[in-house]
C-alpha cells in the first residue's frame, strides 16, 4: 500500500460481494492440484517401501518420509476445503474426496468438519471459545484459576508440549473419538475413518509387514501433524490478534484481524496450500485454496493487512494469555508484571 494511502471503511457483506467470483470451484485447478499432490505422495511412499525392503540405502527411505510429511499437509488442505464444500462444485465429489483424504490424514471428515465450521463462527469471540481452537485463557481467568488448572495450562502452552506431544496425540489418538455435541453423521465418520485405517494397517501388514508399514506411516503423520498444528497455531495466536466479547465483536475484524496473513516462502506456501492467507479464508471460507492468492492479488482492500513473516511468527511461541485491557496476547512473564503492579497499587491505598 502506498504511503499515506487510506482504506475506506467497508462492510463484510460488501467485501464478500467483491470477492464472490473467487468462490467458484474450478474442476481443472482442483484436479491438477490432486495430481501434483497425491501422485508425489504415493511415489514417496513407494520409495520408502523400496528402500526398507531392498538393499537400497535406508537413507532414501528416511528422505522419502521427510518429504512426504509436507505433502500430507497439502493433502490436509484439500481435505479442509472439502469440509467447507469449496473444493468442487459437486457435494458428492467434496464428500468422497473429503473422506478419502481424511483417511490419509487420520482425520474424520464429518466430525472434524462440523467442529471446524463452529470454529469459523466463533473465531475472535471471547465468550465462545473451546471448539476447534487453541485453549486460551485471559489474564483474569488465569489469575483466578485454581493452582492445578494453572499448572495444566502452563504445560499445555509449553512449546515442547504444543508442538511435540500435542500434534501426535491429536491426530493419532484424539481423532479416533467423536467430539462433544457432534451430530450422528459426525460420529459415523469417526467409525468409518477408524475402520478404513484398520483395513490399511491389516493390508499393509500383510504385504510389506507391520514393522515397515508403521515405520513409514507414523513418522509421516507426526511430521505433517506438527507442521499443521504450527500453521493453525500461528494463524490465530499472535500478539496483535483480534478478540472481543460477543456483544461487541465485529465479524469483519474477526476475519481480517483475528486471522493472520502468514507470509511464507513460495515453496512453503505451495505445500501449505496458500492457507497462510488465512484472513481471506476466514472472510469467506467458500474460496478454495487455489483461489486465495489470486483473490489477494486482485482485491486492493485486502492488501492493507500487514503480513506476519516467519521470523516474527516465532514470537508466538512465547505469548500465552489474552490481556483484555491492552487487547493483545502476552507472555506469562508479562502477566507477572501486571500482578506485581496491581499489588503495589493496592498496597499504596
Q: Could you describe the 3D structure shown?
A:
With 349 residues, the chain is mainly α. The chain has one domain. Helix content is 62%, strand content 2%. The protein has helices spanning 12-19, 27-53, 58-83, 91-104, 109-122, 139-144, 147-157, 159-172, 184-207, 210-236, 251-256, 266-271, 278-283, 292-298, 310-313, 332-348; strands at residues 137-138, 321-323, 328-330. Strands 1-2-3 form a three-stranded mixed beta sheet. Strand 2 (321-323) and strand 3 form a beta hairpin. Helix 9 (184-207) runs antiparallel to helix 10 (210-236). The radius of gyration is 22 Å and the shape is globular. The relative contact order is 0.14. Residues 1-7 have low confidence and may be disordered.
Secondary structure layout:
Blueprint: H1 12-19, H2 27-53, H3 58-83, H4 91-104, H5 109-122, E1 137-138, H6 139-144, H7 147-157, H8 159-172, H9 184-207, H10 210-236, H11 251-256, H12 266-271, H13 278-283, H14 292-298, H15 310-313, E2 321-323, E3 328-330, H16 332-348
Amino acid at each position: 500500500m502506498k504511503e499515506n494511502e487510506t482504506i475506506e471503511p467497508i462492510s463484510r457483506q460488501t467485501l464478500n460481494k467483491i470477492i464472490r467470483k473467487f468462490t467458484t470451484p474450478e474442476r481443472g485447478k482442483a484436479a491438477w492440484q490432486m495430481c501434483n499432490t497425491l501422485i508425489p505422495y504415493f511415489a514417496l511412499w513407494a520409495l520408502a517401501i523400496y528402500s526398507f525392503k531392498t538393499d537400497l540405502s535406508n537413507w532414501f527411505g528416511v528422505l522419502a518420509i521427510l518429504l512426504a510429511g509436507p505433502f500430507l499437509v497439502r493433502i490436509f488442505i484439500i481435505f479442509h476445503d472439502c469440509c467447507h464444500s469449496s473444493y468442487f462444485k459437486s457435494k458428492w465429489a467434496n464428500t468422497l474426496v473429503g473422506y478419502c483424504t481424511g483417511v490419509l490424514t487420520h482425520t474424520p471428515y464429518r466430525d472434524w468438519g462440523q467442529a471446524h465450521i463452529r470454529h469459523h463462527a466463533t473465531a475472535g469471540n471471547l465468550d465462545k471459545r473451546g471448539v476447534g481452537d487453541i485453549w486460551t485463557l485471559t489474564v483474569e481467568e488465569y489469575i483466578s484459576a485454581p493452582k492445578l488448572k494453572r499448572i495444566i495450562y502452563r504445560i499445555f502452552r509449553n512449546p515442547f508440549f504444543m508442538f511435540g506431544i500435542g500434534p501426535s496425540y491429536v491426530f493419532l489418538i484424539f481423532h479416533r473419538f467423536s467430539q462433544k455435541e457432534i451430530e450422528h453423521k459426525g460420529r459415523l465418520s469417526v467409525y468409518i475413518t477408524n475402520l478404513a485405517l484398520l483395513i490399511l494397517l491389516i493390508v499393509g501388514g500383510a504385504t510389506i509387514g507391520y514393522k515397515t508399514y508403521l515405520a513409514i506411516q507414523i513418522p509421516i503423520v507426526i511430521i505433517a501433524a506438527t507442521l499443521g498444528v504450527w500453521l493453525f497455531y500461528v494463524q490465530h495466536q499472535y500478539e496483535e490478534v483480534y478478540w472481543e466479547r460477543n456483544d461487541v465483536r465485529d465479524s469483519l475484524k474477526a476475519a481480517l484481524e483475528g486471522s493472520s496473513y502468514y507470509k511464507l516462502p513460495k515453496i512453503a506456501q505451495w505445500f501449505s496450500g496458500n492457507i497462510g492467507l488465512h484472513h481471506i479464508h476466514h472472510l469467506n471460507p467458500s474460496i478454495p485454496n487455489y483461489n486465495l492468492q489470486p483473490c489477494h492479488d486482485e482485491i486492493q482492500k485486502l492488501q492493507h493487512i500487514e503480513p506476519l513473516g516467519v521470523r516474527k511468527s516465532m514470537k508466538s511461541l512465547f505469548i500465552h494469555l489474552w490481556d483484555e485491557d491492552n487487547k493483545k496476547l502476552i507472555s506469562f512473564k508479562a502477566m507477572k508484571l501486571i500482578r506485581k503492579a496491581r499489588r503495589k497499587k493496592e498496597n499504596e491505598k
